[in-house]
Model the fold of this input.
Amino acid sequence: MNGGAGVGIVIVSHSAQLAQGVVELAAQMAPEVVIVAAGGLSDGSLGTDFDLVLGALHEADQGAGVVLLYDLGSAVMTAELAVESLDDPDMVRIAAAPLVEGAVVAAVAAQGGADLVEVHRQAEAAGATPEPSPQEEPAGAPVQADFVLTNGVGLHARPAAQLARAIAGLDAEVTVRHGPASASAASVLGLLELAARAGDTITVSARGTQAAQAIERISTLVETNFGE
Amino acid sequence: MGCDASAVIRAVCAAAEVIAEHRDELVELDRVIGDGDHGENMRRGFQAFVAAVDSAHPATPGAVVKLLATTLISTVGGAAGPLYGTACLRAATALGAEEELTPALVVAALRAGLQGVVARGKAVLGDKTMVDAISPAVDAAQRALDAGADVAGVLAAAADAAEKGAESTIPLVARKGRASYLGERSAQHLDPGARSSSLLLRAFADAAASR
Done:
């Protein structure tokens, strides 16, 4: 995060354990983001607890707003009621997204310093079919480089998140290829799906005015074994 | 013969008893096509109202219904909490600060409640939800009002229509809520939310008739 408080995240689930598990998973990718679980009823049974959700929203709000993700139908109703009861309902955006993917993507976006609108957009996009390549090609000649992954876990969750974060904010469209598969470097999930392991070679190509910087940053990450 | 806050409190407490009596029936209905928590959730929510109303002593019918709304929202864990909670919030707004219920106020409150349920749950008629009980109840209440019925008459008409509406959910395939995951298998079962709605309206009608 680029200093200051970032967007917070609240996970609403019928199950306390499910909410806690999603928080655990998302937090691994975004250590500085406040992610709060609001799962289950106070007596430990399944359900969504209005007061718990309301408390979680207050806890997660660091001043930049909160993106809320939920599991099943009635959870969104409890969430909406809680949001409506806030002094400033606009501080919270409810994302209609697959819970796990949406939470991970939102966490990474928030970690990268994205604002409320952008974190929400990315979370919801996690559930959408990938868009076809944009019509408008970014300026500048493509820059390309091959890297051999020498870290222990390859392009696993944490390295993938680090890679996506490293290029966030740059004017560069970065694509990572591993064998026949390719993914946008901005998409943590896409990077994970490449299934690039230790010893594998990835090809990174970048376009845009800061393409060279993007390649350089990724190079640094790979050379330092993603800090492992 | 007023229909003031204390009359409305008595009616809600009577409804709480009816819900408690029907807890197991609602659990069973929900167990078949849902997650099986509706009876217990509703029982817990209405008992929480009974426990809270003495110390809160709401002074107007609107305040009573508002207290019911906040209690249900805070204590009912399933979909019924936000749905009935929103219905009651909207109904309370429609009742305003009036000291006494009138037939027109009752119809306005029922209509506002239905709009609240629809806004929160996004269900329409025929989705196999509580809307299938409450929507015809509002129409019937309006007709009774137009025909000159008193508060008890309006509520009796609403309860009759809600019971028919609830029965009408039996052949339907659910399109909203947990039952929708069952698809065709949700047919031939009474919707538990529609059932609880009709139970509540009947309890309110009986309370109004016995004053």
